[in-house]
Design goal:
Elements lengths: L2 E3 H15 L3 E5 L6 E2 L4 E2 L12 H5 L4 E3 L4 H13 L3 E6 L9 H7 L3 H4 L9 E6 L14 H5 L5 E3 L4 H13 L4 E6 L6 E3 L13 E4 L4 E5 L3 H13 L5 E5 L2 E3 L3 H11 L2 E4 L8 H12 L9 E3 L10 H7 L3 H18 L1
Parallel strand pairs: 2-5, 2-6, 6-7, 7-9, 8-9, 12-13, 12-15, 15-16
Antiparallel strand pairs: 1-10, 3-4, 8-14, 11-13
Helix pairs in contact: 1-7, 3-4, 8-12
């Protein structure tokens, strides 16, 4: 099967869905590119990360819309377009800028269906580049998905690979409710096997990346690949794990986590967002409330420290939990558990 980067997989999903459904539009800063050379032709560069490249020449300016530098205007316009019958895909250049348009997200889009008694819907997808590791500083590197996961009425997607990104994006665009779609910047160039044509992946269904017997590892987004490297190192010593990639945080497939924990008795959660009020803390709370009887040891949460993200390359590397940190934490957990039991 062909290999596609996550950038190209999302781009392909946009091309497919815009061709299938004329109601789908794309809007955001520089999504159609600027004028090229002296010809005055638009180059369709596809934004700062190139994800929307090629959409303008195929679908035109009426459906691929460059906007002012105003996240409030982008999401506000997308909300209105959705209520009027279109299916907008709004791009925020960085997830960090959710703060600028948060009223339009959590007070408007998330509540339209409820406030209008189910007589209308808001089929909007908000795409947002997220995550650290690219040396972009504290205001362009945050993982903001915990903030929107806590908002009723929003669906939250965090893919870890190109295959999932394409299938989940097609599902997101076809969904009748607002979806916030987080794309990790460091994963854009990473390739995996991606089928041609259309396929969708259901929301609320986790991916069991690998199976094992000693520990359940729940990893989010980019942390899935780091967890795989750690588990490869542990496997040399016979330590195996269930690796669960939730793929969507709202809805969350907590049942898969509980079922895995029934078999392993040990839980490690790896989350790139800060530790306080994080997705890791939320999952730990759910397990403590609903599957405490399965635990043989305290839950381990592996997150960055509760600090802004450093700009210095060496400090940023130390900030993000890496494979060696994950491996060491799992070894310590299992050692302490054996000693206690």
């Amino acid at each position: 099967m062909r290999q596609l980067s996550m950038r190209d997989a999302i781009n392909e999903a946009l091309h497919l869905e815009m061709a299938r459904d004329p109601r789908v539009i794309v809007l955001g800063e520089d999504v159609s590119g600027g004028a090229g050379g002296t010809s005055g032709e638009r180059d369709a560069a596809g934004g700062v990360f190139g994800v929307t490249k090629g959409l303008l020449p195929k679908f035109g300016e009426a459906r691929v819309i460059d906007t002012p530098i105003s996240e409030s205007a982008i999401v506000g316009a997308a909300n209105g377009a959705a209520l009027a019958g279109l299916r907008p895909v709004a791009e925020l250049m960085f997830a960090d800028f959710l703060g600028v348009c948060f009223d339009q997200v959590f007070n408007q889009a998330a509540k339209f269906r409820y406030m209008f008694g189910g007589k209308t819907s808001c089929p909007i997808v908000i795409r947002a580049a997220t995550g650290a590791g690219m040396n972009m500083g504290a205001q362009h590197s945050q993982s903001m998905y915990a903030m929107v996961t806590g908002v009723p009425g929003l669906k939250v997607v965090v893919p870890s690979n190109a295959f999932d990104a394409k299938g989940l994006m097609l599902t997101a665009i076809r969904d009748d409710d607002p979806v916030v779609f987080f794309e990790h910047k460091a994963l854009y160039p990473r390739k995996s096997a991606v089928p041609e044509g259309e396929y969708t992946l259901p929301f609320g269904e986790a991916n069991l990346v690998r199976s094992g017997e000693h520990v359940t590892v729940v990893a989010i987004g980019r942390m899935v690949s780091f967890a795989e490297k750690a588990l490869d190192a542990l496997a040399v010593d016979g330590i195996t794990a269930d690796l669960v990639d939730p793929r969507t945080l709202s809805p969350l497939d907590d049942e898969t986590i509980y079922e895995s924990l029934d078999n392993t008795g040990h839980l490690v959660i790896i989350d790139e967002s800060p530790p306080r009020c994080s997705v890791a803390a939320d999952i730990a709370g759910l397990v403590a409330s609903n599957a405490f009887h399965s635990l043989k040891a305290p839950i381990v949460q592996i997150t960055p420290p509760h600090t802004p993200i450093p700009f210095a390359r060496e400090l940023e590397r130390a900030y993000v939990p890496g494979p060696q940190t994950i491996e060491a934490a799992i070894r310590k957990m299992l050692k302490d558990s054996r000693a206690a039991n």
